[in-house]
Structures are given as C-alpha cells and as structure tokens.
Amino acid sequence: MGRVGEQQDMVVLLSEAFQSQIPQVRLHALEGSFELIRRCAIRGLISLLSMDEVRSAAAGALGRIVAQRIDHELIAALESAVSHETWS
C-alpha cells in the first residue's frame, strides 16, 4: 500500500510542477520545442522540492549512471577477455 501511495504522491507532485510552468510550456509547444518543454517541467518540479530532496535525487541518479557505466565497462572487458581466450 505504501508503494501505491508514493506513486500517487509523485503523480500529484509532477502535476503541480507541470502546472506551475504552463505559460512557458504553451509558448514552447507553439514553437515545437519539446526539449524546452522538458526543461520547464524539470524546473517546475525542482521549485516544489526542498534542496535536500534535489540533492538526494541527483546523488541517486549519479549513482545509477556510474553503476551503469561500470557495468558496461565490465561487460566489455569480459567480452574482450572471452574473445581473446577463444582465439588464443
């Protein structure tokens, strides 16, 4: 039940963030700039969060990016080692 509540809270938060940026979103939509629409939504979301929450989310995202990069590098190294062993 807690997970559903958290998801509902996030939906409400994202909705409020988007609504806070409506004028800019409309302008960018008319210009066809989806990247700017995305940035507006992010700015709106950040404006609703405390600095600690933003830092925590950024740290989590950075951790996932680093983990993914390590995974990709490890997989590439293993594939290279297996390939090298197979042909040697």
Report on the architecture of this protein.
This protein has 88 residues and is mainly alpha-helical. 92% of the residues lie in helices and 0% in strands. It has 2 domains: 1-49, no CATH class; 51-88. It is built from 4 helices and no strands. The mean pLDDT is 65.
Helical amount among residues, as a percent range? over 70%
> Count of DSSP E strands?
0
| Computed structural class | mainly alpha
- The first-to-last residue Cα distance is 56 Å
Q: Indicate the proportion of strand residues.
A: under 5%
- Sheet of most strands: none
Tally of individual domains = 2
The topology string of helices and strands comes to HHHH
Distinct helical segment count? 4
Q: What overall form do the CA principal axes indicate?
A: elongated
**Unreliable runs:** none
Q: Would you tell me the overall average pLDDT?
A: 65
- Taking Cα atoms only, what radius of gyration do you get, to the nearest Å? 20 Å
Brief overview, please?
The chain is mainly alpha-helical. The protein is built from 4 helices and no strands.
Topology (elements, then pairings):
Layout (H helix, E strand, L loop, with lengths): L1 H19 L1 H10 L2 H15 L2 H37 L1
